[in-house]
User: Which sequence fits this backbone?
């Protein structure tokens, strides 16, 4: 059974992570969720715990169930890390080596492949600084499922809408298959 660490960030698209959990579980995969500080403003840890059957990680300094710090055990048990949706904030932090929450620390501590599915406002996505961070992460072996044009939270259409879940699942499975062969 493959273990997926699903990182969820503070994007309106966070609700779609619930469906991702269900899709992966139906495929026989184990899913554990790590939430950024703002993720619970959109979907609660209880929702993810109910869907995964596992405690959602959300507090870097919470007492772990074992003696191992939680972000280390998350990193070690994951066959792959998927961050969906990924905000500009989380992409910038990962690219800069900033580890200020359980998700960024788990990503930094992981030797597993990382797939990132951005979701944000079109102006944010087209920001050249963010573009540089994405290119940097790609050059370091991080995988991306690029956003698509769609309805945005600001009320207009533009690039930045989370990619279709089927594309995210397909990319995750491809990366998993490539690392297991």
Assistant:
């Amino acid at each position: 059974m493959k273990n997926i660490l699903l990182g969820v960030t503070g994007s309106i698209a966070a609700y779609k992570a619930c469906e991702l959990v269900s899709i992966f579980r139906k495929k026989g995969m184990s899913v554990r969720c790590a939430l950024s500080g703002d993720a619970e403003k959109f979907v609660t840890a209880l929702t993810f715990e109910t869907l995964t059957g596992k405690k959602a990680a959300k507090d870097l300094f919470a007492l772990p169930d074992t003696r191992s710090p939680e972000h280390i055990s998350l990193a070690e048990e994951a066959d792959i890390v998927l961050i969906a949706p990924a905000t500009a904030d989380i992409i910038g932090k990962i690219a800069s080596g900033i580890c200020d929450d359980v998700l960024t620390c788990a990503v930094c501590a992981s030797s597993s492949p990382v797939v990132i599915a951005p979701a944000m406002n079109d102006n944010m996505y087209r920001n050249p600084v963010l573009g540089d961070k994405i290119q940097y992460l790609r050059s370091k072996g991080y995988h991306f499922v690029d956003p698509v044009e769609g309805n945005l939270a600001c009320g207009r259409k533009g690039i930045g809408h989370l990619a279709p879940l089927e594309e995210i699942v397909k990319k995750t499975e491809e990366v998993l298959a490539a690392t297991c062969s």
In short: The chain has one domain: 3-180. Residues 94 and 145 are 16 Å apart (CA to CA). The beta strands are 3-8, 30-35, 80-86, 114-118, 143-144, 148-151, 157-161. The longest strand covers residues 80-86.
